[in-house]
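Below is a filled-in request sheet from our internal design queue. Each sheet records the structural input a requester submitted and the sequence that came back. We keep these sheets so that new team members can see what a complete request looks like end to end.

REQUESTER: design group, bay 2
PRIORITY: normal
MODE: inverse folding
CHAIN LENGTH: 570
BACKBONE (tokenized):
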């Protein structure tokens, strides 16, 4: 492929909108262009890299016996109501009504759709186990899209779903998929880790994330001690003082304050000239049976839905509609007058004269103390995510790291098959719900993660297997007859074609400096430089992008030397 026949609009300036390295370099190298907040067009160079990652994913999934399907991106809302997740995902979902007044969803994930397909097509144990997968565009109405393609409103995912007659069969496939994921990310040239994780809104039991440590990551991970396991922030337990809620005499100090238009912790704290740690958040959750409960945490802390979910299985954040139906003002929730069971994080017990919501629009309560909260049903414990300074239950330090989530595998068990009535007949003719597993990979994120992990101050450094091209031939004088002959021999090389080596040729009439800078920016792992001085001696240079190492080789042996150099690259 000739550069002059390809669209590679590189940028010299750093785009102001880009905050992280991968976003900056994907824009500067001409891989992507922004259409709107959280949505990107992939240009030819970026699409080639994306397709290389897709191919690796497909090859490994096919090798494991999974069957590829393609599911609709447009879902009827009814199927999400069946599973009970329409409210759980709430405003993250993109809803709209069609011309017939039917409510639809642009799919953020496909558990409901694949379960609907299974309940229609899988009827007997003889069809099990089976694993179906797709590579499909997903949509989420992110409040603040950021970090380029790492957190966008439209993204590409590989999601697979396995169906089983027994938990033992699910365990077998789950372990197979775990190994498949290791192969995929290894082939993509990534240095990754496997960590225990929270299933979250996906439901089910067992769950593991495949992560890559990076300052650009949005997942926070915790290493327990200096050489202990890595666990998600949601799941990490902390050392408690074992305090319990007691009905101390009320202080009688608290009073109602007008806080017009201020509902978030940050806004209320600023308005009242307080710190977020002076507030207590009251988060209301729903149960599968339609009842509700509340969780109280300090204003600068976050609820751990994993920890809460261990006590209240299947719980989910209550919707605005549900909260208002109970007679409370959304955004101003507090622990007074609700008569709901409450889970109070231990830190709240040590607070004095704090601020809570008044359950009345535009109002908060000030100078509240734990003894003021009159409830017959409060349980104290560990209900928040860990923070800096916490220790593990056995006293080890908790070390915080940021990470990019590459993939996630789940044991869904009966989470979707029961509410959607996806059943099969066993050997005895008895009807049972299908046992399910789920396995997702963010394909776009593979590219961004590779750039974050491997790029240097000059630009991208692609791993060999997902690079848009494996070799870049730079002709300093593209009109030189000898250079043109060498280029033709490289492009026509059967040896390179047999090994799947894609070659890009920089045939532009540009200065050597421009060409070298662009070569470093787009990050092709191996460069071949055709310069007049070496050509006169019948030689060419081979340059390794990652190390900058240059080897001068004889032109007749150029192709074998290219193959040899590529064999040594990761």
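RETURNED SEQUENCE:
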């Amino acid at each position: 492929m000739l550069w002059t026949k390809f669209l590679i609009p590189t940028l010299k300036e750093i785009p102001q909108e880009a905050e992280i390295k991968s976003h900056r370099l994907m824009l500067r190298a001409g891989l992507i262009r922004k259409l709107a907040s959280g949505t990107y067009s992939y240009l030819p160079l970026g699409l080639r890299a994306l397709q290389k990652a897709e191919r690796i994913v497909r090859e490994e999934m096919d090798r494991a016996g999974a069957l590829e399907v393609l599911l609709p991106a447009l879902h009827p809302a009814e199927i999400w109501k069946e599973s009970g997740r329409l409210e759980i995902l709430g405003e993250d979902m993109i809803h709209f009504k069609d011309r017939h007044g039917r409510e639809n969803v642009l799919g953020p994930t496909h558990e409901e759709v694949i379960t609907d397909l299974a309940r229609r097509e899988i009827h007997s144990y003889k069809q099990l186990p089976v694993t179906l997968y797709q590579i499909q565009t997903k949509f989420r109405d992110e409040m603040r899209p950021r970090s380029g393609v790492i957190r966008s409103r439209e993204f590409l995912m590989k999601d697979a779903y396995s169906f089983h007659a027994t938990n033992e069969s699910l365990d077998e496939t789950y372990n197979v998929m775990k190994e498949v994921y290791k192969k995929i990310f290894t082939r993509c040239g990534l240095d990754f880790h496997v960590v225990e994780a929270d299933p979250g809104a996906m439901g089910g039991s067992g769950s593991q994330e495949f992560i890559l440590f990076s300052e650009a990551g949005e997942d926070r991970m915790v290493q327990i001690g200096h050489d202990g396991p890595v666990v998600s922030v949601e799941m990490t337990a902390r050392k408690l003082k074992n305090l319990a809620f007691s009905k101390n005499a009320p202080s009688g100090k608290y009073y109602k304050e007008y806080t017009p238009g201020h509902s978030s912790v940050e806004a209320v704290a600023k308005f009242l000239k307080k710190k977020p740690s002076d507030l207590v958040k009251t988060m209301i959750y729903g149960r599968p049976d339609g009842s509700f409960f509340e969780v109280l945490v300090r204003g600068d802390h976050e609820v751990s839905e994993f920890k809460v979910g261990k006590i209240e299985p299947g719980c989910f954040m209550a919707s605005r509609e549900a909260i208002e139906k109970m007679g409370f003002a959304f955004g101003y929730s507090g622990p007074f007058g609700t008569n709901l069971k409450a889970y109070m994080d231990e830190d709240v017990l040590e607070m004095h004269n704090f601020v809570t919501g008044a359950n009345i629009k535009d109002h908060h309560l000030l100078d509240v103390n734990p003894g003021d909260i009159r409830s017959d049903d409060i349980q104290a414990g560990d209900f928040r995510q860990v923070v800096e300074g916490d220790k593990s239950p056995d006293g080890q330090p908790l070390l915080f790291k940021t990470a990019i989530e590459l993939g996630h595998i789940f044991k869904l068990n009966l989470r979707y098959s029961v509410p959607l009535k996806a059943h099969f007949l066993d050997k005895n003719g008895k009807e049972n719900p299908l046992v399910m597993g789920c396995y997702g990979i963010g394909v776009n994120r593979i590219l961004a993660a590779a750039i974050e992990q491997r790029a240097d101050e000059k630009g991208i450094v692609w791993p060999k297997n997902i690079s848009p091209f494996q070799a870049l031939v730079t002709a300093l004088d593209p009109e030189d007859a000898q250079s043109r002959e060498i280029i033709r021999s490289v492009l026509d090389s059967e040896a390179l074609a047999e090994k799947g080596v894609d070659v890009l040729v920089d045939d532009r009439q540009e200065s050597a400096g421009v060409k070298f800078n662009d070569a470093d920016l787009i990050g092709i792992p191996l460069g071949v430089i055709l310069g007049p001085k070496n050509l006169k001696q019948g030689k060419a240079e081979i340059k390794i992008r990652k190390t900058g190492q240059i080897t001068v080789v004889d032109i007749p042996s150029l192709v074998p030397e290219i193959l040899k150099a590529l064999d040594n690259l990761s």
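SHEET NOTES:
- The chain has a mean pLDDT of 92.
- The two ends are 23 Å apart (CA to CA).
FILED BY: M.R.
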